[in-house]
Design brief:
The chain has one domain: OB fold (Dihydrolipoamide Acetyltransferase, E2P). Helix content is 5%, strand content 36%. It is built from one helix and eight strands, in the order αββββββββ.
């Protein structure tokens, strides 16, 4: 993408020091969506944890999943929550349910016109927003409504 959904000036997201979420961030750099999956009971989960939310097993791993979901909820901030966002409002924050992953939900921003029309239940697709000019390059997962 040539234009960032979020402006420069926000802290760069980096993997946690303990490495727990590194597979997710490494996947975003390859434009892949990765979610945790339990090798014992099959539970999918997000956000990352060292053990399974379903059976408490430590047999939790990461899997690449389809970068598509369903719009579950949304919010449109009109007031900046950080000074770097002063010129970016309004924008639309969405909660996306991943049906291929047991219905886990992820938060992201909706790309495009912040006043665009959409509805709960609309299908959405991940948009991988590369920030290669950051001191520590990273990629954000944003979302767009599928027609």
């Amino acid at each position: 993408m040539g234009e960032y959904v979020l402006p420069q000036g926000l802290p760069a997201p980096v993997p946690a020091r303990d490495g727990l979420d590194r597979p997710y961030w490494d996947g975003t750099r390859r434009h892949e969506l990765w979610v945790q999956h339990c090798g014992q009971c099959g539970t999918w989960q997000w956000g990352p944890e060292w053990n399974c939310h379903g059976c408490r097993s430590l047999a939790i791993g990461w899997e690449s999943v389809p970068p598509e979901g369903v719009l579950y909820s949304w919010q449109r901030p009109w007031h900046p929550v950080h000074s770097a966002l002063a010129d970016a409002v309004p924008y639309t924050v969405v909660l996306v349910e991943l049906p291929d992953c047991g219905g886990v939900r992820m938060v992201g921003n909706l790309v495009g016109d912040p006043l665009q029309r959409f509805a709960i239940g609309d299908r959405v697709q991940a948009v991988f927003e590369d920030h290669n000019d950051s001191p520590t390059p990273f990629t954000l997962v944003q979302w767009r409504v599928l027609s």
